[in-house]
TrEMBL record:
SUPFAM superfamilies: Carbamate kinase-like. Residues 7-292 form the Aspartate/glutamate/uridylate kinase domain. This is Carbamate kinase. It comes from the Bacteria.
């Protein structure tokens, strides 16, 4: 009997896809480097699931949709735009993976799965939308839109008014059985892009944004992954980040990390969701491990980044 292959969920941060150049060519070039970093991990013969963010891409797509909105060519709603970016980013990534796997003589198929994630209509997040999306409007236009629809607009850091949508918690992943079947067949799966397409229990897509780190954790839990690797713009997480007494963390237990969360070391819009996702995952069992690090540390992931375990 062969030993069970480890299952790893790798969540790619925004900087893995987009550097400065938002053209398709620019993003594909960035993804080429990203895939170069993924190859050593794939060589270790693991079951690999890749998730990714889509913030800038879906933001630009929503602007494009609205700029050309007409009755013959109507702007697509947010859930559809998320699906579109899962497709486009998934295409770039699977295409580049296939090229580099072939060059490395690794026989592994790659596929992107359009992923729908159920959220709860009663989720308290719907009463407090926080994620800004779409174009900046004048105060008058925003107030008119609020009177005419049930959308909520807020003033955004002096730059104008923007629509805000809820960021509800992921509850269930519709395609999880298929994703599991694919990795068991040796296939690399790209899924849950942009945190997944939020759908309600009745199956309808909803205008919301699921945090990609929470979606990745939910996925890792549902496929019973051994490791959750969250790749971002920093090599490790820090206490007193950006301050004189900054201290980078190599290994932390869940209990230690919870103390640091309570002490307010992690920014709510960026590092906090990663830390919370890591905490939720390692609480699943003593053998589970989460790592928060940067892409260039993937090759020696055993010693890199901040390693988080239950005990
Ligand atoms: P991603 O696109 O990968 O989700 P984010 O920008 O949302 O990236 O979050 C990662 C960023 O969080 C880091 O690049 C860093 O600038 C910031 N950050 C905030 N608090 C911390 C901390 N305590 N330790 C390390 N990085 C932190
Ligand atoms: Mg983020």
């Amino acid at each position: 009997m062969s030993e069970k292959k480890p299952t790893i969920v790798v969540a790619l941060g925004g900087n893995a896809i987009l550097a400065e150049d938002a053209s398709a060519k620019g993003q594909k070039e960035r993804l080429k480097q990203t895939v170069e970093y993924l190859i050593p991990l794939i060589r270790k013969d693991v079951n690999l699931i890749i998730t990714h963010g889509n913030g800038p891409q879906v933001g630009n797509l929503v602007l494009q949709q609205q700029a050309s909105d007409s009755s013959k060519n109507p702007a697509m709603p947010l859930d559809t735009c998320v699906a579109m970016t899962q497709g486009s980013i998934g295409y770039w990534l699977q295409n580049e993976l296939r090229t580099q796997l072939k060059a490395a003589q690794i026989a592994k198929p790659v596929v992107t799965v359009v992923t729908e994630i159920t959220v709860d209509a009663q989720d308290p997040a719907f009463a407090h939308p926080t994620k800004p999306i779409g174009p900046f409007l004048t105060e008058t236009a925003a107030k008119e839109a609020m009177a005419a629809t049930d959308a909520i607009y807020r003033e955004d850091a002096g730059r104008g008014w923007r629509k805000v949508v809820a960021s509800p918690a992921p509850q269930a992943i519709q395609e999880v059985a298929s994703i599991k079947a694919l990795i068991e067949q040796n296939t690399i799966v790209i899924c849950a892009g942009g945190g997944g397409i939020p759908v309600l229990d009745n199956g309808l897509g909803v205008e919301a944004v699921i945090d990609k780190d929470f979606a990745s954790e939910k996925l890792a839990r549902l496929v019973d992954a051994d490791q959750l690797i969250i790749l971002t713009g920093v090599e490790k997480i820090a206490l007193n980040f950006g301050k004189e007494n900054e201290q980078w963390l190599d290994h932390v237990t869940a209990a230690e990390l919870e103390t640091y969360v309570d002490e307010g070391h992690f920014s709510p819009g960026s590092m906090l969701p990663k830390v919370q996702a890591a905490l939720n995952f390692v609480k699943m069992g003593a053998e589970k491990q989460a790592v928060i690090t940067s892409l260039d540390k993937l090759a020696d992931i055993e010693d890199a980044g901040t390693q988080i375990t239950w005990k």
